[in-house]
Amino acid sequence: MIIAVLLAAGVGHRMGSELPKQFIEVAGRTILEHSIRAFSAHAGVDEIVVVSHADFIDRVRSLAAPYPKVRHIVPGGKERYDSSMAAIRLYEGMPDACLMIHDAARPLVSQRIIGDCIAALSRYDAVDVAIPATDTIIQVDAEGHIASIPARSTLRNVQTPQCFRLSVIADAYHRGLADPGFVTTDDCGVVHRYRPDVPIYVVEGESTNVKITYPSDLALAEKVLS
Length: 226
What we know:
The chain contains 7 helices and 11 strands.
């Protein structure tokens, strides 16, 4: 079973809006609804769970009502990994299921990306989405001096969805949460650190698959979705 997990529990302070950014309307629909529509439209996705801020569950339920693939709406937590864990716990009785964990604030995810991720899950237990880095990346030391300049050809900018066989991501998180030094920014990072035996395949992303973070990002979304 392929389950899309839409993470929509953030408050989006950087957007400067009274409402969390996932409820901002772009091209006639909220950002969250565009993300729901993208995964609902793909035949390979069996069901969808939306992880929402607890204060907005009723609003999410109303938005999701027209989409029968949305089977669950659950509260998230303070950190991103709390929201991922909410979905993992929901499905832990189905170890053969696969989770496609996606930022709901990436409403421009394409059917090609979703399809390529599903295809990759038939061969790999962990799948990421990324695009080649276009800028030179430097690593600095504690004093702010350049410590190294990695070859740009080896660097990628990470997107979502990030996809996993449930047994793998659940085990990685259980190991991570038992670590007093646990720190993470994304789900593939947890698997990479705590299940290094699991190779993570990288699907090619798209430059339009942006995360809506600042007001300037809305213009791109409006253009593409219109």
